[in-house]
Design brief:
The chain has 291 residues and is an alpha+beta fold. The protein contains nine helices and eleven strands. The protein has two domains: 64 residues, no CATH class; 191 residues, Aminopeptidase. The longest helix is centred in the C-terminal third of the chain and has 21 residues.
């Protein structure tokens, strides 16, 4: 069968298109979501934890529809508002009394994974109020953490799926494009790291990063059905030196191009960022090269 199209690394053949058209013709009353789930089941298209790749499949079907390769059933509902990722969160009132002193005085710290828990809103709100980038709801696989000291939040850390194309990282790992597509799910990207502004405790940030490195892979395994072998993040050198990452033994990998998400021109559209990485296993390159 000839490969005629590629969507996010998945090859779509003539036989695939014929099967999709036949399914739509046989069940014209099927909703787009029901169609997506049926396609995921027929193609055995599932995440490592067994969940159907519904969101990606719906994106594929809409892409094929807009490209004239098939005609989807009419949508069951619509909206005039363009889709945007959620960037706000209701504010919360918490104790902002300054927390100072040595790190040992705060221990033991409690690091709680809060995604899909009642405390997720607290994490979202703290990021929206106090992180310089604000809050943006992650898309795809992600986990959120709040760090507590004696029941008071002192930090928030969020992780998400790694960016697809990142030159310094790919060169460091020795990845070819096909290996990157196959193995990218074993990386996690630190999207936000916030020490609350009333907390002044030396070495707290690097300590939290060390604790996160010790537990993130197991948490990811529990939620998504596979481990993490490598962590990465961006640091804006115009604002920060990334001292806490370096103190936690993260590795400087290089600089981004500043061209944003697959920019069609060579012009910079974003600030140039420094890329930092942290291997979670000694044999990370071997694990990330395996099929």
């Amino acid at each position: 069968m000839d490969d005629i199209l590629t969507y996010r690394g998945r090859r779509i053949t003539t036989a695939d298109l014929t099967g999709l058209r036949d399914r739509i013709a046989a069940q014209p009353g099927l909703s787009r979501r029901a169609l997506s789930l049926a396609v995921c089941d027929a193609w055995q298209w599932r995440q490592p934890n067994g969940t159907p790749c519904d969101a990606i499949c719906r994106g594929l079907l809409l892409w094929l529809h807009r490209g004239g390769h098939l005609v989807l059933p009419p949508p069951k509902w619509g909206t005039r508002k363009p889709w945007r990722p959620r960037t706000n969160a209701p504010p919360v009132l918490i104790d902002t009394t300054p927390i100072t002193g040595p790190l040992r005085a705060l221990r033991p710290l409690a690091i709680r994974q809060v995604r899909r828990t009642p405390e997720e809103g607290l994490c979202n709100s703290l990021l929206a109020q106090y992180h310089y980038l604000g809050y943006q709801q992650p898309v795809g696989a992600h986990l959120k953490y709040v760090v507590f000291a004696a029941d008071r939040p002192v930090a928030c850390v969020t992780w998400a799926s790694a960016p697809r194309h990142l030159g310094p990282r790919d060169r460091f790992l020795g990845w070819a494009p096909d290996t990157r597509r196959r193995q990218l799910r074993f990386l996690a990207y630190n999207t936000r790291f916030l020490i609350l502004p009333w907390v002044t405790v030396p070495h707290l940030a690097s300590h939290v990063l060390g604790q996160m490195a010790a537990r993130l892979s197991a948490d990811w395994q529990q939620v998504y059905g596979h481990p993490i072998y490598f962590l990465e993040t961006f640091v804006d050198p115009a604002r920060f030196r990334g001292t806490c990452y370096r103190a936690a033994n993260w590795i400087a990998l290089g600089l981004t191009t500043g061209r944003g998400h697959n920019a069609p021109t060579q012009a910079r559209t974003q600030p140039v960022k420094e890329v930092l990485g942290y291997p979670l296993t000694p044999d990370f390159r071997q694990r990330l090269a395996e099929g």
